[in-house]
Amino acid sequence: MILDTLDPIDLVELTERASLQTRMDRKYVVPADAVPVLLRGIEPGARILQIGDERDFAYESVYFDTPDLTSYLGAAHRRRRRFKIRTRTYVDSELCWVEVKTRGPRGSTVKTRLPYDPDDRDTLTDEGRRFADDVLDSDAAFQKTLVSTYRRTTLYLPRTDSRTTIDTGLVWTSALTGASRRLDDRVVIETKTGSTPSSTDRLLWRHGHRPVRISKYGTGMAALHTDLPHHPWRRVLDRHVTR
Asked: What CATH number has the domain spanning 23-241?
């Protein structure tokens, strides 16, 4: 595959060149068998994140919400002041962060994060709660609601100092019921840029793929809890998840 031929970039350099804590995210759901063809058109000079000998990494995200699902319903109803709280664990390197994602100007995503003990990833410790309260200016109670696991490949695009991520093997598990769902035969591609679309966006557009509304939290909760409002993700659910 073309990914095997790309020059590597390490995590330090990637973070220096494209940290993108405030960014525009565009997401695409693509049939897995279409990805090799797409990758042949990737931007010249693109590099791939490599840590040690590995270029493909296991991720686990644990999401937290209020008992009345304020975070989920904020996204479902497209409220302006919405947020997301999760722990993100890089399984292979045993690194973990607690992260709060909020909305910035013009629909941008602002991610604020704090180093976290991987052993605590299933809970919000006192420190994690204080961090979330400080970012959100609130004192809400939070509970574990959803776990997502997948494997990720990350590309660095030098023309726009941006990232493209390719996620495979996505599995959602409800922390409320224990039910699981796997996104079979589909790959989630995300572009993380400044205000300008990346060459990956334009490549996907040329092949007929358009950005879709998919949220690993929102879509996963909607797929596993069919009684919840799910309008923003209905098309993705019908075409890719519950087909």
From this structure: 3.20.100.30
Where b means 16+ CB within 10 Å and e means fewer, 166-200 reads: bbeebebbbbeeeeebebeebbbbbbbbeeebbbb
| Tens of each residue's pLDDT in the chain, 243 residues | 788 999 999 988 988 887 655 568 899 999 999 999 999 999 999 999 999 999 999 999 999 999 999 999 999 998 888 999 999 999 998 899 999 999 877 667 788 999 999 999 999 999 999 999 999 998 999 999 999 999 999 999 998 888 999 999 999 999 999 999 999 899 999 998 877 889 999 999 999 999 999 999 999 999 999 999 999 999 999 999 876
Pairing of strands 57-65, 143-157: antiparallel
Domain coordinates in residue numbering, the chain:
23-241
Q: Specify the pTM.
A: 0.90
Whole-number Å distance between alpha carbons of 223 and 35:
24
**Pair 31, 37: CB distance under 8 Å:** no
